[in-house]
Each structure stands twice: as structure tokens, then as C-alpha cells.
Amino acid sequence: MIYLEIQNSGVEKLLLPKFESAKQGLKYEKFDYVLADFDGVLHSLHTVHNDKSKIMISISLNFYSELQDYRAGKLLGREYGEHLCEKLENGASVSIIYDLKAIPPGHGQPASQIALLKINCFSAVFKRFFEFHVLGEEAVGSKRAVIHYRTDETLFVRALADRVTVMFSTVFKDPDDVAIRKVFLQELTEVQRRIHRAPQVLYSQGTPSTELQGTSAAVGDNVAYVTFVLFPRHLTE
């Protein structure tokens, strides 16, 4: 079985001791880290200048402007509340700040929530299109999104009255990529066999779906397309 973490474990591991030390009343220590995610996303974590009791976390996403079209800022406001900064660090897409002196007793672990910052940005697209689906065919129309989350790879989402389609176009450049692809697809096939209600998964190489016509999604002979088809039973809260 392949286990894919949704949080950034590096961010979580760096911040956990900071919050634990603060809860124990230990002295605050200055730090400054930059973490690069596998898809080029950068996390910046550091203490605020001249105030070691405050820590700032920023994330840089090249495609954040595309996410904003689907209310990413509103979703982050609900998730991080007063911690969300109006004034961003230079080059940052989102900045949040935490005061180590103001963590309420019994408060949930902030490090875990902070480690979900990227996935919370990304989830805005899915949440919006799930809402489009609920509104029905008349309200949905031909709504679709194309998110360029990497230089040569894209995410395509479309909502219709009876389903939501999520398609990833990705490039397999070397033998390792091909091996990973085989394992990944095998796992998806096994899940479908074991779980009858699992979403339908489609795979094609070189031939894009007609849904991609007229979009800026990545296409080409070396591009593979993995499509997840979500029906109402998959979208029920």
C-alpha cells in the first residue's frame, strides 16, 4: 500500500518542538528555515525580527493567482483566522503568524494545521467545484478550471450535474517515473477491486480527453492523463 501524506512533514517536525517548548514555558529561540517541496513550492519559517516569541510561516506558489479565482483566500481565512497576514513577505503567496505567548491551554496542535497550508490552498479549487456540482446543471454550465501547478503539468477540474471530473496531465521523463506510474496505477486498480464505491480512475497516454480541447492544459505524446470521476456518492459530506 502507498501512503501519501497530505501535510508537509518537514514543516510539522520543525514547528512541533517550537510550540511544545512554548507550552512548557521554555525560552524562545531564534530560527530561520526555508523548505523546498517536491513540486517547487517553498516554505519559509522564521521568528519575527526583534521578537522571538512570534513565528511567521510563508508559502510561495507560482500558481496561487489561479487558485485565487476559486476563493482560496476566503478558505484560508476560515482555516487560519486571525493568523492570516494581510501584509505578505516578499515573494510569498500566503503568510501566517503565530504568537507563542498566546496559545490557549488545551489548544490543538498548530504545527499540524500549519503543515496543511499548501493542501488548504489547493483544496479551494475542489471545494468550489463541489459547490458548482451541488448547484446543478443550470448553475454549473461549462465551468472548468485549469491549474498550472508545475511547468509542464496541469490539473483540470470540471463540474457537471452528475459528476465532477478531476484530471492530472503529467510527464513521465525517465525510467523511474515509469516505474512509479505502474505502481501508482496498480494501487488504484486494487482499491477499485476492494472498495466498490471507490471513484472511477481512467488512464491514457498521449491522447488527451476531449474535455481538454480549448484549454491551456499540457498536451503531447509524452504526456499521460490520469482522470478521477467523482459521482454524487463520493461528494456527500
UniProtKB/TrEMBL annotation:
Coiled coil: none annotated. GO terms for molecular function: actin filament binding; structural constituent of cytoskeleton. InterPro entries: ARPC2 (IPR007188), ARPC2/4 (IPR034666). This is Arp2/3 complex 34 kDa subunit. It is found in: Cytoplasm, Cytoskeleton. Belongs to the ARPC2 family. Its main location: cytoplasm. Functions as actin-binding component of the Arp2/3 complex which is involved in regulation of actin polymerization and together with an activating nucleation-promoting factor (NPF) mediates the formation of branched actin networks. PANTHER family: ACTIN-RELATED PROTEIN 2_3 COMPLEX SUBUNIT 2, ARP2/3 COMPLEX 34 KDA SUBUNIT. Component of the Arp2/3 complex. One of its GO terms (cellular component) is Arp2/3 protein complex. The keyword Cell membrane does not apply. It comes from the Eukaryota. It holds the Pfam family P34-Arc.
